[in-house]
Amino acid sequence: MKVVGVFVGFIILVASLFLFESAYKPQTMEVGEVIKKTLDSVQAAKVLTFTFTRFERINGKMATSSSAIKLETRPFKLYLKTLGADGGKEVAYGVEKHNKAVVSPNAFPYVTLYLDPYSSLLRENQHHTIFEIGFTYFARIMAAYSLKIANKHKEFCAIDGDVEWGGRKCISVTCNYPSFAYVKYTAKKDETLTTIANRLLLSDYMMLEKNSENVSYYDDVDENEEILIPNSYCKKITFYVDKANYLPIRQMIYDDQGLFEEYHYLNVVKPK
Length: 272
Fold this sequence. Notes:
With 272 residues, the chain is α+β, with helices and mostly antiparallel strands. The chain has a domain at 31-180 and 232-269: Clam (outer membrane lipoprotein receptor (LolB), chain A), CATH 2.50.20.20. It is 27% helix and 35% strand. The chain has seven helices and 13 strands. An eleven-stranded antiparallel sheet has the order 6-5-4-3-2-1-13-12-11-8-7. A two-stranded antiparallel sheet has the order 9-10. Strand 12 and strand 13 form a beta hairpin. Helix 2 (31-44) packs antiparallel against helix 4 (136-148) and helix 6 (193-200) packs across helix 7 (204-210). The radius of gyration is 24 Å and the shape is globular.
């Protein structure tokens, strides 16, 4: 009886230790959970300040610039001041009762300009307008991607592991879209590359680049004109999620030629 009692006691002890270890062992999130938590965090981030650096492939070469930014998402308001060698230029939007961006070049002749955010002056050598700055655009792209893959994140996405970047502890996530390709599209009345891209959540710059022989600018599209558009925003995206706030502070986007664009968000602050 003593032997049986000792054996039973041993089994209970082992089971207790197993349960204790299971209860206190850190639970690893699946990739779909990380993506959902990231999108929820972006949705909740209504006011932000950060240092923004962009790397964008323009005519085969990477163009880069950095800015200090204050951003409100709803309603959209933005203040931007360029940094570095080209520093000092300021852009503000949403501060006055019109749909113009207020641009202060901080250089001779020191004239304040009121520009359409979609104008060539503000979009020169850039993939996006000021409206795509911040995390909301990324969240819209990822939400559209999730629909394309029917939320089968385990099949198309993976957690690469933990990384430390920009002094922040992050989770690296990579999502693929293997069937990325260009397809024919017939433009409708009054459509532009930008309106098509906004509706389908694609890159209008990618479309402009692909159709450069026949399309000179984003609005240079005729009704019934046949153009090529990508069937997804990108072929692959890798992003670093800050473990402290679950914001995607580094984003690397690839097309069929390689790295298409990369965005860094440092010194991110969510004011109370």
